[in-house]
Amino acid sequence: MPDGARYRNNPEVVKLTSNNKGEITFTPTQAGRYLLIAQYQQNAKNKALADKEQGAVFLTFEVQLQ
């Protein structure tokens, strides 16, 4: 999501799904700072205390004009 959009009523979120290699492609439409949130969830294997495992990574980056 672009800079300043996180707490708006319309946060301009773009949801992407990775391919079978875990890769995504994204081309920003405007310059500025962005927040990327990558999440995963899967069924827990051989875990007596949990049904699912999940994780998240937060990354910020800046896009500049050429």
Question: What is the helix tally?
Answer: 0
Task: Name the beta content range.
Answer: 35-45%
Record the strand order, biggest sheet. Answer: 1-2
Overall average residue pLDDT: 86
For the secondary structure, the number of strands is 2
Series of H and E elements: EE
Radius of gyration: 16 Å
Poorly predicted residue ranges: none
Describe the oligomeric state of these chains in a short phrase.
single chain
**Structural class computed from helices and strand pairing:** mainly beta
Kindly give the count of domains: 1
In angstroms, what separates the terminal alpha carbons? 20 Å
Biggest sheet descriptor: 2 strands, antiparallel
Helix content: under 10%
Structural shape:
elongated
Q: What would the keywords be for this entry?
A:
two-stranded antiparallel sheet; 2 strands; elongated; mainly beta; 66 residues
